[in-house]
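input
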Amino acid sequence: MEEIIVEADSVRIQTNKRELRADRVILAVPAHTAKILYRQSGDIEYALMDTPYSSTLNLALGTSREWALPETLRYVYGLLIPRKERKHIAAIAVETAKCSDRTQFGHLINVMLDGTSGTEMIGWDEEKILQTLQSELDELLPGISRCIIFQKYYHWLHAEPKSPIGRSRNIAAYRRNIPPNSQVLLAGDYMGMPFTEGAAETGQWAASHLIKSNNGFPGSANQTR
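output
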C-alpha cells in the first residue's frame, strides 16, 4: 500500500500494483505507517499518528541437548526480570515449555531486552550482542552460553508505542468527536493500550463505530446508489 486518498464519495487505496476503492477504510497499521499512508488527516489524527515508538532487540537461542533448565524452571514458560535486578534482559521465554516441537534439539529460548538496551544494541554486530549478554544469561540460566548451537536476532525498530503526555486525551477526543460519516477510521497499537490486546480492542471499536454509523451513510445497505 502506498497511499490512502479520501475523495467525495469513496476512498482510493493506491498500491504498487493496482488501485482499490472503498466506501470506508479501517486503517489498522502502526502509527509511523499510518502517517505515511494517510496524509489528509486532521490535527488530532496527525498527533496520534505521530506517536513515537520504543525499539528493542529479541534473540532466539537454540541449545544442545547437553544443557538443561534449572530444576526450578523446568515447568516455567516465562520469566520477568525485576527492573532493579536487570542489566539488559527484561524477560525470557522458554519456547519449548510452551510447545515441545519448537526445536529438534535441546531448548529454544527467547530473550527479550529492555527498552534502553534494545535501542542501544539494535545496530550492533551480532557477535558483540551475545558477548555483552553472556554473563547475564549465565546468571539467569546457568551454563547456557556454552551450549548455544544457533541464534537468530529480531530487530524491532518500532516495537511498542510510547505514551507521551496527552496521548490518552487525544484518543478520547478522537473517539468522542469523530464524525459518523468519517471515511477513514484509525486503529492499531497506538490507538489504545500499547500491547496486542489493546490493538485488538481498537479494531473492535472501529468496526463497531462503522456499523453504528452505517445507516444513512452513502453506500450503505439502506441506500440506493
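quick obs: The domain at 3-52+162-212 is CATH 3.50.50.60 (FAD/NAD(P)-binding domain).
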